[in-house]
Design a protein that fits this description.
11-stranded mixed beta sheet; 4-stranded antiparallel beta sheet; alpha+beta; about 650 residues
Amino acid sequence: MSKEKFDKKLITLLESNLDFVDEVGELHRANIRERAWKLDQDLIKLLLTDKEVEVKFFKEIEGRWIFDNNTFVDYITDKNFFADSYTKFRNKIGLNIDGKFLSERGEVALVWPYKDCVLEGGQTREEEKRKEIFFNEILAPDEINRMFDPKVLTNWKRHTANGEQDVTDIQRDENGTIRENLIIKGNNLIALHSLKEQFRGKVKFIYIDPPYNTGSDSFGYNDSFNHSSWLTFMRNRLYVTKELLRSDGVIVVQCDDNEQSYLKVLMDEVFGRQNFVSNSVVVINRGGRDYGGIARTHEYLLVYSKEPQTALNQIEEKHKNFDYEDELGGFNLMELRNRNILFNAQNRPNLFYPFYVNPVDEDTSGLLEISLESKQDFVEVIPLKSQGVQTVWRWGKARAREYLNTEIKGKAKRDGGFMIVQKHRSASKRQRSVWDEKEFVNERGTEHIKALFGRKVFDYPKSEYLIARIIELGSDIGDIVLDFHLGSGTTATAAHKMGRQYIGIEQMDYITGATVPRLNKVITGEQGGISESVNWKGGGNFIYCEMMKYNEVFMERIQLAQSSEALLSIWHDMSKDSVLNWYVKPDKPEEAEENFTAINNVEKQKQLLAELLDKNQLYVHLSEIEDETFAVSEADKALNRAFYGDSD
């Protein structure tokens, strides 16, 4: 039998199993290759149904037939096997090395999913049954480092209550830190790397609400990453944000059940398990969505600190009612004992000592005199044991002596014993791990947006009340707050009203249709959301700028194209005006164009064209700002020097 006939027979046999074809019914060799390496029983049984195929890929050893998976993999991987138009185009344009397609070489590489992902990992598993485009592209390892170089920023505008103004300078404090509110349009991973030198170790608080990997969200993001890709997507970004955080910095990531448990493990890796603060539950939907008979009403807030034992702020309670009052004002009582058994007499001996309580002569609040020295008729009180562990006080002895009988007193218990209590005068409280306030639900965010714009301009915006509470926990007035999944801009608007400096990053076009207009309304004094509670009257300003596009222009044109004819036109332009990958042939053979047209599948054609572009050149590098090719204006050059410093 000729090779051509055998190939046709083998392809027909493999296509008879729907697990071995892709969503448009074509043979999916990456999946088949993976199954062959794993000695998949379904594949082996299928191959044994044809005698000629059996003889080709099985060896007889002492009366037993053994599957030769290496021979099989080499055969189906050969560039001449299954040479359809898709394969022929890849061969003609140079998308293979040493006869193997780039995605088949098994190398650790950089992968670029649509819009804003850079992922590092193997390829074969990621290719199975994929619906998204732009996933499995490989950049040469020696090219990856340029992707994270600082990029040229352009289209600068300062937004004020009096409208847009040209940016003439970049404000800095006495330490040289940039003191401007910034809204940046561009890929968030690349933008974060561009911010590294100016903001390393200076960001106090980070909040992000990333795509949840549900496959059905109404996000502007491509929200269909599979599990492993999504985690890598997050890992790339979390590592660079860790560099930006101050030593006392805090990060909060909001997510749902799709990835929560896996994200917790990932964040343990990135920030350290010892820096885990809380996995809080926040009720975002009072009605809930039906999941197998259970109405899911909540999401999660994963909270981590940059360094151990970083304290979060307490929450100010307005119109606080106190249970007691003395000459200094109202107060409540808080037990001085530390209930956390991790702090115990063995590892905190300085916090373990006795008090002595006068069992009589209560004051008007029912509190009793105490002493640090033994006195006649006084009763000794030490911290109680918990789970068999000897607990300790929250204060050391020196501080206790300073506030003895003024801010700490004794109090009789119902069982006849005594405890030491502190007069807690602050109108603040610790945030509990279950966030169940009615103002936190997503409906509040939607109502706010509709009130601002008169219509729905963004799906599922978070409540400004929720984001304000999160910001209040992790930052103080003047601190820098970062959100690199900015969306409709809730983090930036809350931060602006609360007196924080903020940096927001967003790649999607709604940044100019929703996010920036929303912030403009904040500056002019809009009264929705938290405005009344923080006495917001308007004011302030922010700078908007964009990373200067190069190949990203073609990426966007490819995604928007609706026909093969439009894509062919884009290819012609790319050949003249873009930087192609190093392994792409500089010429464009006529037969390659014929193969491209013959593919007759717009999504596959989009993927092929995206592979041609060098992803290191999506944006213009700062080091190339003087290159006449990019026509950077003199005004932009001056602002980039002011932003990055004189050296490039």
